[in-house]
Design goal:
This protein is mainly alpha-helical. It folds into 2 domains: 135 residues, no CATH class; 321 residues, Orthogonal Bundle (Neurolysin, domain 3). The protein has 21 helices and 3 strands. Strands 1-3-2 form a 3-stranded mixed β-sheet. A hairpin with a 3-residue loop joins strand 2 and strand 3. Helix 15 packs antiparallel against helix 16. The radius of gyration is 26 Å and the shape is globular. It starts with 5 loop residues before the first helix and ends with a helix. About 2% of the residues have low confidence. This is Peptidase M3A/M3B catalytic domain-containing protein.
Length: 513
């Protein structure tokens, strides 16, 4: 019997191991493996989102004790998973090789989430953000709260850490990273700002000249602009609706466009919310469990805005959790698009035809409101520009003097004749928990105008009473979730990406007359 040399056995074993490892590598980099892996991770991801939504709901509604720590830690653990990060990174490099378009999009959305997580889930950033959130809520006693100076030091440290981590990911600073992973795009946004700045400067200056003459004022101050902003905001919402009529009118507004209000199974609670919060919409499980909590004095328009968030979630039918647009991780959705859908729903109740049907405003009243809104629109836009740019400019140099930045930005966009003299707090819950978000309201204003313009073109002047409108909104803007980037979604549904030029031509040019 012939004896096999040990070297031969070793060679056979090595070849076997190589073949096995090659098979494992092939399997790891197959679409089938990737799909199975993401399916499993997204089950966990959605469970965390449901737990997070429940905790936030309980925090706002006070219906039950709120445990935010558990889902936050679970989210941190999931998004820090080495295999998940490795697979998504590798497949992003070869995304054009993925034949399944849904799988390709899932990979890209995961990339956005994981990129932001490298910043927000960093140990130091995570702990500091959580600590600031604790101090900035009303759940902590005054005796426990640090001084404002200490809070500001913590806020500065958070911004610097965010910048450092974002730069490690290849971005210029944190604000640039947020604009990129939410698919707004830093270059696109700065061009957008310049366009609005250029188009509104003339009408805005003309309005200031008129105010100086009418009120015999030599100097325009910040309080004057705040007052004009308030006048615009109140008139843009239409008639003030008594609280006892709001529920009925909310129901009528959406049933008029073919949406079954009762089928939404909406859970709405009135509650005394923390300072600065008028209403809060919470997607617990998309699309079946959406809830709204509001202050009892919140206007019908603002309630409709929150309902708009709910309809956006309720109309999402994709089965893939990462494409449902949960809001708990930066990069999972585009806040500008979400706010745009919410504003679209809100604007149904300030439509002239709707106001004539359900309010006591006369034709003359409606014409007066429209004139005010048209005249003061540049104030609204430039005020939002200023608020958006303060935070974005702050991340360029977090250590710059905050009051000087506040003065400089407001001077640039509001053309103030006198210094403001003080700023709003440097440490605030928006900067901590919703960073680089204010610009979304500016984009939403234009997006909602664009959608209503298309609705009028499609369904006529009385589109607010057309039962086909609801189905169009559902199918055109919500059903597929995050499958398409927001600009593509808007173009597919309206024929154009965000129509900034159309909006400015239609709205702002009239204000300068």
């Amino acid at each position: 019997m012939k004896t096999v040399d040990w070297r031969t056995w070793l060679a056979v074993a090595v070849i076997g191991l190589l073949r096995c490892s090659h098979y494992v590598a092939q399997e790891t980099y197959s679409e089938q493996y990737l799909r199975r892996y993401l399916d499993a991770k997204e089950v966990v991801f959605e469970d965390i989102c449901v737990q997070m939504g429940t905790a936030y709901w309980n925090a706002y509604s006070q219906e039950a004790p709120s445990d935010l720590e558990t889902p936050k830690q679970r989210c941190r653990e999931l998004l820090s998973n080495d295999t998940l990060n490795m697979l998504v990174s590798k497949w992003c490099e070869r995304s054009t090789m993925i034949r399944d378009s849904v799988l390709m999009r899932r990979v890209r959305v995961w990339r956005n989430i994981l990129t932001a997580a490298r910043v927000e889930m960093d140990d130091e950033v995570f702990d500091l953000r959580n600590q600031l959130e604790l101090w900035l809520t009303e759940t902590s006693g005054a005796s426990e709260r640090p001084s404002q100076e200490e809070l500001d030091k913590m806020m500065l440290q958070l911004m610097k850490l965010r910048n450092t981590k974002a730069q490690e990911c290849g971005f210029g600073n944190f604000s640039e990273m947020v604009l990129e992973v939410t698919e707004i795009g830093a270059d696109w946004f700065h061009s957008f700002v310049e366009t609005i700045d250029s188009a509104t400067a003339g009408p805005y200056k003309q309005l200031l000249r008129t105010i100086r003459q009418e009120k015999n004022k030599e100097e325009i101050e910040y309080k004057d602009i705040r007052q004009l902003f308030g006048v615009y905001y109140v008139n843009s919402q239409g008639a003030q609706i008594p609280e006892e009529k709001m529920s009925v009118l909310m129901e009528k507004a959406i049933e008029n466009i073919g949406i079954d209000f009762d089928a939404l199974n909406l859970h709405l609670v009135e509650q005394n919310l923390p300072g600065g919060v008028g209403g809060q919409s919470v997607a617990i499980r998309i699309p079946t469990n959406f809830r709204i909590v509001v202050r009892d004095e919140l206007s019908l328009y603002d309630r409709m805005h929150e309902l708009g968030h709910g309809l956006h979630c309720t109309f999402t039918i994709t089965k893939y959790p990462v494409l449902k647009g949960y809001e708990w991780c930066i990069g999972n959705d585009c806040g500008a698009y979400s706010e745009g859908i919410a504003e679209t729903i809100a604007k149904f109740v300030c439509n002239g035809a709707w106001q004539r049907e359900y309010t006591d405003l006369s034709g003359e009243d409606l014409a007066t409101q429209e004139d005010i809104v048209t005249a003061y629109l540049p104030v609204y836009l430039r005020f939002l520009l200023a608020r958006s740019m303060i935070e974005i400019e702050l991340y360029k140099d977090p250590e710059q003097n905050y009051l000087e930045l506040w003065e400089r930005v407001h001077k640039k966009y509001l053309f103030l004749d006198k210094p403001i003299g003080r700023s709003e707090p440097f440490t605030n819950i928006i900067y901590v928990s919703y960073p680089i978000y204010v610009q979304n309201y500016l984009i939403a204003e234009i997006m909602s105008w664009q959608i209503h313009r298309v609705l009028q073109d499609r369904y006529g002047a009385n589109y607010v009473f057309d039962k086909k409108v609801g189905e169009y909104l559902k199918d055109g803007f919500c059903a597929e979730g995050e499958f398409y980037p927001w600009k593509t979604r808007l173009k597919r549904a309206t024929g154009k990406e965000l129509d900034v030029d159309g909006y400015l031509s239609s709205m702002v040019s009239r204000s300068g007359r």
